[in-house]
Design a protein that fits this description.
The protein has 190 residues and is mostly helical. It has 2 domains: 64 residues, no CATH class; 112 residues, no CATH class. The protein has 11 helices and no strands. The longest helix is centred in the first third of the chain and has 18 residues.
Length: 190
């Protein structure tokens, strides 16, 4: 099933995802605990093709059973500091998580923003490493998560972003929060 979820052919991925859906309904969270870690491991690969396979597999998994997979997956992906692999995984699954994402925004967005330094000077001031590839992946993940929020979850998103922009937040978190607010203001769907 893990191999099928990562197959190059969309029809194979969809069939494997359908099998996962049935398996998860029958044995519960054990199915998620067995399959998701293997897909996350692919996200850590230096091989871009394996990373893409892991992203496809995670997307299929989440799209079939978001309310079963998201509560398992997002706490793992939101461990601070958020790694490159976890940022890529969040980007991959955000658009298919649907409403399951809403109640986890207070976990994943603060973790992303705490790890994200959009400004190199702020990273230097805080003594944090500045890695452009990680910065871009974190930025993309935060944007993907924010843009994936549906209308009925906007109050969750706004609450997190208002907190991020508060004077008590670190400067780099305020910069990231303000950038997300700017993105949402530019997006015609909101």
């Amino acid at each position: 099933m893990r191999t099928g979820l990562c197959d190059a052919e969309q029809s194979v991925r969809e069939a494997a995802a359908g099998s996962f859906k049935t398996l998860e309904r029958n044995i519960g969270t054990q199915a998620v605990q067995e399959i998701a870690p293997a897909l996350l491991q692919l996200m850590r690969s230096p091989d871009a093709a394996e990373v893409a396979q892991g992203q496809s597999g995670l997307r299929e998994l989440v799209s079939q059973r978001p309310h079963a997979v998201v509560p398992f997956l997002l706490p793992k992906l939101s461990t601070r500091p958020v790694s490159l692999a976890h940022a890529r995984a969040l980007s991959a699954v955000a658009s298919v998580a649907g409403a399951a994402l809403h109640t986890h925004l207070d976990l994943c967005l603060p973790a992303l923003l705490a790890s994200l330094y959009l400004d190199e000077e702020l990273a230097e001031t805080d003594g944090a490493p500045y890695d452009a590839e990680l910065r871009d992946a974190l930025h993309e993940a935060a944007n993907s998560v924010a843009l994936a929020v549906e209308e009925d979850g906007m109050h969750f998103l706004m609450s997190v972003l208002v907190g991020a922009c508060a004077a008590s937040s670190a400067a780099h978190v305020r910069v990231g929060g303000a950038a997300l607010l700017g993105l949402l203001c530019k997006e015609p769907t909101y």
